[in-house]
């Protein structure tokens, strides 16, 4: 079709914003090309040779436009600071010389050379090519050598122990380190830029300065905003005043766009696949995509970790200063330096976290999109390697675990480095006494290694069970309607609970092993102090305040790496397992279409559209193929012909279509087709969205063709009677459409696309004979399709005789090909029964003569699509709570855990902290009294041992009680939620997408299982830690009391301001996650249809939009969290400086009160230092707990859903119903209050033992009779009486178990065939085989492996027709007096249908049989026929 504005562009990049246009109908005008994303309009003036030369020069000599904003700021800021420090040092040298203290020659040389160096750099920065000079490899090497040569100067300065000189020299060295690292980073980046292609470099040159000027209006202002996260201020203001919406969120940076993240990761995966075709690794793919920026973050972490030890060193100097009682101002300088060091570390800490989080978000979106893309491109045969639950877990769990690997890798080297530095500094304090602490650590290494291996094994087993549970949960939700009709929901629940029990078994193993890890690592610092100080004293040394409290501060620095290490190991184990699972999935061979464009293939002279030569296909991808589904098929289909594919149930008709689509594995031979393809599956796949979206399916909207297609498919009248017209919303899987409407909507999609090859899999079976005749005449045989090649799998006699070619399939082979006329005279004439042929002929004549009963406006006059106005959507918008997480959520979680366990956990945590504080107070008393009194050392050591033992015991109690409570809560939440869902009415499942429910049972439940107990444990530890610090500081430092009230006021204001926003962001995050899982579940069902229409890019772009929204919420959430963290650390730095300054003032005697002994002052200072991390950690863990509790909140929403009325007061006889008489008395049923009644004052009686057929046009209310009989939907008025008993008075499950039913959509679950037929194991095998024989399915079952064969997921081991026969056999085995058949012969050939009719007549003699049918032959021999029209009986 010609585009209105020019030639269509399938894949094009905008030169300005790099916006990719993905097959979305975007056009570029030849007159004025522009981008719809940024309205960029490139001008095309003729360029001069000088301009071209300048561009080439820019490629060779890249300028500052290639560096990031923060790099440019540091490149200018560091030389300025360095020059200022050098000037100050020279000034001080001059001042000393004037005072008669001349400095040495080398000091003058050093300071002057430093000033000259920084001045030269500032001068060079004024030139265009300054980076070429600074990034020269010789100078880069010199910077590294300069750092090494500076170490002796630094060591000499620190040996003097002069505070000011130490700080001054440290700043100079830190500047050299930062500048050297920055220059080397820029040099490596520019080297990689020069390796890129000339075209990309030219684009970068063209875009660089323009992007920079647009994005960064002010360098310093933007730098300050980035460092302090002020960009989130507006969002925080909105969050404090109102409920946040998606429009209030921050805009994503361009490098975090999910499309670019997908392209980056996917390209690296393709490269990895080419280099290692057999075993490509997702881990190395991630390294190639994000390895360099990740390594650069390691440099920030090195500086940040090293700066963390400045606090203990400054503390040591300050305590020594206080002990000496010096009167100079070094004490004030040290006190202020403590606060400034904390501030500098907070900047580095938050920037590292920010950039790491950005990298994780980019990786997460990349993983999600490539998993989604893989599902779009993997054929059905290759997908059989994985269950649907396993694939769902890839997206919901494995992607997150792989992303968390980013934290673990840096921590793997960082934590040992921090431990090593802390041990070295301990050596400087207590000499070789620290070996006792090292011994404890070394002894724990093999223990933790063994525990880590056990955790890895338990995690792997747990993930396997989780996959299986999610699969069974998805199966339960998908077929909940059928399960309720069978009365099997409790049976399925019990099977699901067994899988959950195994999952919890491995989860509990992991949690208790984690508890041992927590115990070992949490008690290590206490044991460390005991053994270190004990050995130090036993070696003959005397403890003093400086030594003890410097060591305590270093122990506090050890706590974080020691406690974090087991979690790092666990995270790495989880990540490795998940990356391997994802690598296996992503390595699957992608779908290879058999279709080629017409101009690219040369077919035979007969102009065939499809050619199959000796094709052998199977659904399995194993190397040893046990069974061929298609066996040596040879077939040639001419262009423009209508081909009817017929055959018995399970003969391979649907497999023939799937082999042409490329969905099966081709073992031998060849299959070729040409042109575009449209496909309608046997079970129509309906997209959640508007009716128009389902029809046009990404194609351009043509109103004329669109109207013609709707009329041809008999949808125009349905839509005209629907509120909202064709823009009405269709629920998930077409939940608010009848079976016939779904089939016609899927057919309309195929007709509208006007493809060269149209494949229809039994589309006429779901509609009645009149509608089938209309569709055949006005769609399939009409000008809309008569020039196309059409392949129709069908049992419809009219369609068979209207076809040009008939293909007869039998046991996977093409048995006969010819015209319909020859077919009736061949050996396969039994497929066409004479009476049906006559009936069909009469019906066709009526259509052609325009009989009034077949006019198009009558076809669907009773069909109204069940859509309401927007105020009463059939699919409810997901609810989202407002305000803070309510106290009831905390109370509910505590009750799930058990109040006694909650009490024990809290009490043990408080006593644990008390024992630890007592240990420190005892040390303080020790160092104060040893100088005055001569108590034996053994007394101090024994009491210290008592505190240590108590702390270890209480730590163990806390760890295991928390593990037990978390497991108990996980079990209770899952069981209660599952029970509530199983007992919910069908209306709930009709209005709630299964992806939304599955999100609760997968992602939210995983949070409750694992993440929530973990973060709650941290919160409790932080709370009791802060409580202990506050009590100790108030006790030993009276001046701290003056700070408590103002400090608490500011702290509460900041945290309230943040929490109000963070809650909303977390809820938005949860809401934005649901569409991702819903769309993912949707494409898992319809992937073959999407591939047939070549609409992969359309669905990928839609999914990217969902991920983009998810990305925005997560990005805003991270920025808000870091905004809080930075400000809290500023606040904590002030507290540290305040206490230190008060201690200095008190030591000078300037205060009227005594601030205590040196031991108590040292204790106060050592306790003030962790406030920096503890305050931030407490509020972070508190807000994270609130965020995680949103999962509990969301689960609790579904624990309050309406429940079916299960109880009844009527006690039934064991053999009820005895007669099977069914009476409807003035029954009215409507599915929603706003919808018209599906049954209107309906009254009829079905005598016991009779067979009754119910007929009517699609949507007339036939299935609603069964819904009312099985009480799936409550009736508004009237009564239903069965054998003189009102069914409303009977227990619901008891009622459903007394009826047998064969549903419209056949249902087989994964398991053995015997379990599918007789799940309660009530019948012997011989009876089951006899029943299968009566249903004409025995031979196929024996060939497939007998009753013990394993049914694949969704019953794909059998065709749809075979599944219906098995469901019929299941109903026969039930042996009840009432049998309900809902279109059970719709997908069965007429020959088998005739045999089944005879079987039903003979086997069900004396039974009440209610049959809903479309085929006239099905109801010809019934005792009575009920004709329904618009929910009433038609006279």
From TrEMBL:
Major localisation: membrane
UniProt KW Zinc-finger keyword:
no
Leader peptide range in chain numbering? none
SMART domains recorded? AAA
What is catalysed by this protein? ATP + H2O + xenobioticSide 1 = ADP + phosphate + xenobioticSide 2
Please state every residue range assigned to the domain named ABC transporter: 605-836, 1222-1435
Concerning its family, UniProt says: Belongs to the ABC transporter superfamily. ABCC family. Conjugate transporter (TC 3.A.1.208) subfamily.
InterPro entries for the chain: AAA+_ATPase (IPR003593), ABC1_TM_dom (IPR011527), ABC1_TM_sf (IPR036640), ABC_transporter-like_ATP-bd (IPR003439), ABC_transporter-like_CS (IPR017871), ABC_transporter_C-like (IPR050173), P-loop_NTPase (IPR027417)
Could you tell me the keywords of this UniProt record?
A: ATP-binding, Membrane, Nucleotide-binding, Repeat, Translocase, Transmembrane, Transmembrane helix, Transport
EC assignment: the record states 7.6.2.2
Q: Report TM segments.
A: 73-96, 137-158, 170-188, 302-319, 331-348, 421-445, 518-538, 939-960, 1039-1058, 1130-1153, 1159-1179
Record's PROSITE patterns? ABC_TM1F, ABC_TRANSPORTER_1, ABC_TRANSPORTER_2
Q: Which GO terms describe its cellular component?
A: membrane
Keyword flag Transport? yes
Organism of origin: Mikania micrantha (bitter vine)
The name on file for this protein is ABC-type xenobiotic transporter
Instruction: Report domain ABC transmembrane type-1 positions.
Output: 302-574, 904-1187
Where found, per UniProt? Membrane
The entry lists its GO molecular-function terms as: ABC-type xenobiotic transporter activity; ATP binding; ATP hydrolysis activity
């Amino acid at each position: 079709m010609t585009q209105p504005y020019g030639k269509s562009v399938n894949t094009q990049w905008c030169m300005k914003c790099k916006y990719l246009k993905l097959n979305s109908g975007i056009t570029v005008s030849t007159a004025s090309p522009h981008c719809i994303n940024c309205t960029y309009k490139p001008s095309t003036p003729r360029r001069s040779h000088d301009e071209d030369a300048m561009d080439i020069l820019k490629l060779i000599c890249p300028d500052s436009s290639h560096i990031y904003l923060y790099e440019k700021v540091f490149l200018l800021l560091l030389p300025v600071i360095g020059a200022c420090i050098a000037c100050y040092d020279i000034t001080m040298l001059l001042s000393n010389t004037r005072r008669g203290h001349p400095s040495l020659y080398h000091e003058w040389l050093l300071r002057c050379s430093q000033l000259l160096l920084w001045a030269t750099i500032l001068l060079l920065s004024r030139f265009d090519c300054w980076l070429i000079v600074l990034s020269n490899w010789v100078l880069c090497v010199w910077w590294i050598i300069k750092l090494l040569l500076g170490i002796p100067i630094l060591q000499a300065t620190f040996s003097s122990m002069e505070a000011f000189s130490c700080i001054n020299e440290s700043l100079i060295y830190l500047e050299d380190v930062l500048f050297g690292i920055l220059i080397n980073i820029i040099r490596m980046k520019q080297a990689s830029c020069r390796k890129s292609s000339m075209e990309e470099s030219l684009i970068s040159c063209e875009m660089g300065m323009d992007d920079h000027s647009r994005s960064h209006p002010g360098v310093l202002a933007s730098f300050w905003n980035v460092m302090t996260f002020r960009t989130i201020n507006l969002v925080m203001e909105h969050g404090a005043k109102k409920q946040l919406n998606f429009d209030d969120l921050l805009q994503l940076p361009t490098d975090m766009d999910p499309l670019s993240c997908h392209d980056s990761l996917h390209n690296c995966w393709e490269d990895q696949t080419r280099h290692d075709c057999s075993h490509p690794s997702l881990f190395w793919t991630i390294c190639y995509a994000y390895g360099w920026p990740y390594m650069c973050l390691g440099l920030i972490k090195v500086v940040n970790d090293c700066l963390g030890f400045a606090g203990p060193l400054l503390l040591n100097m300050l305590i020594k200063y206080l002990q000496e009682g010096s009167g100079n101002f070094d004490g004030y300088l040290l006190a202020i330096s403590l606060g400034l060091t904390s501030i500098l570390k907070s900047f580095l800490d938050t920037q590292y976290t920010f950039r790491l989080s950005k990298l994780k978000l980019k990786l997460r979106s990349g993983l999600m999109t490539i998993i989604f893309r893989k599902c779009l491109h993997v054929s059905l045969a290759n997908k059989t390697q994985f269950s649907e639950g396993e694939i769902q877990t890839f997206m919901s769990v494995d992607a997150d675990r792989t992303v968390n690997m980013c934290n673990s890798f840096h921590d793997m080297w960082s934590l040992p480095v921090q431990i090593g530095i802390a041990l070295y500094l301990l050596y400087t304090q207590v000499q070789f006494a620290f070996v006792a602490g090292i011994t404890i650590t070394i002894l724990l290494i093999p223990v933790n290694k063994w525990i880590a291996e056990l955790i890895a094994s338990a995690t792997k087993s747990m993930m396997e069970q989780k996959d299986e549970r999610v699969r069974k949960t998805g199966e339960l939700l998908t077929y909940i309607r059928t399960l309720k009709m069978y009365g099997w929901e409790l049976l399925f629940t019990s099977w699901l609970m067994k899988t959950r029990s195994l999952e919890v078994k491995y989860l509990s193993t992991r949690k208790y092993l984690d508890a041992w890890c927590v115990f070992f690592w949490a008690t290590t610092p206490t044991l460390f102090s005991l053994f270190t100080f004990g050995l130090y004293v036993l070696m003959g040394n005397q403890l003093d305040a400086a030594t003890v409290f410097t060591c305590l501060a270093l122990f506090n620095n050890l706590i974080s790496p020691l406690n974090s290490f087991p979690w790092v190991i666990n995270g790495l184990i989880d990540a490795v397992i998940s990356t391997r699972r994802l690598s296996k999935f992503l390595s699957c061979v992608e779908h290879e279409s058999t279709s080629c464009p017409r101009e690219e293939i040369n077919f035979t002279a007969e102009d065939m559209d499809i050619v199959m030569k000796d094709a052998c296909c199977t659904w399995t991808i194993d190397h040893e193929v046990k069974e061929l589904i298609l066996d040596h098929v040879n077939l040639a289909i001419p262009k423009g012909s209508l081909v009817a594919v017929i055959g018995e149930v399970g003969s391979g008709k649907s497999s023939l279509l799937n082999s042409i689509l490329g969905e099966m594995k081709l073992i031998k031979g060849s299959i070729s087709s040409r042109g575009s393809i449209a496909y309608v599956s046997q079970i129509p796949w309906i997209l959640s969205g508007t009716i128009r979206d389902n029809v046009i399916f990404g194609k351009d909207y043509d109103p004329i063709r669109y109207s013609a297609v709707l009329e041809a498919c008999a949808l125009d009248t349905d839509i005209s009677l629907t509120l909202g017209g064709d823009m009405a919303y269709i629920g998930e899987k077409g939940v608010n459409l009848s079976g016939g409407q779904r089939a016609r909507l899927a057919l309309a999609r195929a007709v509208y696309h006007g493809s060269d090859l149209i494949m229809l899999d039994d589309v006429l079976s779901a509609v009645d004979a009149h509608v089938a005749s209309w569709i055949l005449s006005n769609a399939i045989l009409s000008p809309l399709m008569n020039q196309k090649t059409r392949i129709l799998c069908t049992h419809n006699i009219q369609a068979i005789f209207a076809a040009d070619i008939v293909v007869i399939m039998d046991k996977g082979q093409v048995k006969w090909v010819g015209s319909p006329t020859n077919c009736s005279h061949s050996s396969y004439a039994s497929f066409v029964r004479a009476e049906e042929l006559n009936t069909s002929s009469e019906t066709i004549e009526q259509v052609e003569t325009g009989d009034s009963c077949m006019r198009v406006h009558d076809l669907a006059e009773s069909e109204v699509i069940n859509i309401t106005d927007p105020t009463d959507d059939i699919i409810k918008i997901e609810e989202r709570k407002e305000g803070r997480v309510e106290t009831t959520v905390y109370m509910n979680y505590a009750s799930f855990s058990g109040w006694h366990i909650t009490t024990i956990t809290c009490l043990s945590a408080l006593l644990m902290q008390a024992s630890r504080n007592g240990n420190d107070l005892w040390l303080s008393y020790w160092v104060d009294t040893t100088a005055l009194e001569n108590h034996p050392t053994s007394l101090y050591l024994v009491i210290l041992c008592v505190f240590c033992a108590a702390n270890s015991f209480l730590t163990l109690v806390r760890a295991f009680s928390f593990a037990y409570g978390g497991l108990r809560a996980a079990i209770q939440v899952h069981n209660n939620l599952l029970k509530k869902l199983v007992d919910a009415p069908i209306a709930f499942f009709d209005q709630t997408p299964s992806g939304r429910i599955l999100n609760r049972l997968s992602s939210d439940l995983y949070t409750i299982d694992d993440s929530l107990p973990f973060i709650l444990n941290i919160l409790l530890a932080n709370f009791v830690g802060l409580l202990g610090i506050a009590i100790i500081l108030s006790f030993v430092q009276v001046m701290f009391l003056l700070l408590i009230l103002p400090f608490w006021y500011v702290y509460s204001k900041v945290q309230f301001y943040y929490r109000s926003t963070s809650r909303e962001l977390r809820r938005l995050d949860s809401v934005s996650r649901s569409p991702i899982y819903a769309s993912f579940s949707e494409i898992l069902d319809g992937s073959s249809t999407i591939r047939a229409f070549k609409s992969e890019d359309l669905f990928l772009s839609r999914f990217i939009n969902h991920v983009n929204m998810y990305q925005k919420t997560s990005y805003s959430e991270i920025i808000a969290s870091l905004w809080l963290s930075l400000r809290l650390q500023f606040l904590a730095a002030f507290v540290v400086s305040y206490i230190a300054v008060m201690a200095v003032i008190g030591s000078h005697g300037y205060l009227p009160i005594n601030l205590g002994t040196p031991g108590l002052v040292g204790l106060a200072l050592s306790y003030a230092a962790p406030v920096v991390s503890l305050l931030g950690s407490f509020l972070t863990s508190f807000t994270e707990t609130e965020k995680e509790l949103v999962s509990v909140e969301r689960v609790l929403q579904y624990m309050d859903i309406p429940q079916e009325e299960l109880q009844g007061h009527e006690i039934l006889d064991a053999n009820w119903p005895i007669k099977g008489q069914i009476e409807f008395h003035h029954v009215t049923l409507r599915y929603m209050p706003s919808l018209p009644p599906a049954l209107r004052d309906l009254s009829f009686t079905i005598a016991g033992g009779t067979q009754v057929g119910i007929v009517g046009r699609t949507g007339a209310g036939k299935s609603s009779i069964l819904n009312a009989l099985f009480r799936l939907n409550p009736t508004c008025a009237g009564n239903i009486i069965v054998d003189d008993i009102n069914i409303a008075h009977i227990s619901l499950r008891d009622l459903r178990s007394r009826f047998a039913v064969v549903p419209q959509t056949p249902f087989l679950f994964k398991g053995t065939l015997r379990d599918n037929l007789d799940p309660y194991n009530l019948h012997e095998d011989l009876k089951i085989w006899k029943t299968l024989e009566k249903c004409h399915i025995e031979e196929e079952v024996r060939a497939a492996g007998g009753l013990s064969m394993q049914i694949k997921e969704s019953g794909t081991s059998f065709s749809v027709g075979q599944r219906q026969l098995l469901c019929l056999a299941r109903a026969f085995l039930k042996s009840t007096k009432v049998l309900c058949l809902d279109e059970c012969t719709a997908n069965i050939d007429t020959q088998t249908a005739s045999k089944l009719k005879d079987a039903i007549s003979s086997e069900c003699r004396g039974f009440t049989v209610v049959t809903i049918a479309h085929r006239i032959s099905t109801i010809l021999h019934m005792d009575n026929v009920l004709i329904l029209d618009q929910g009433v009986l038609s006279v």
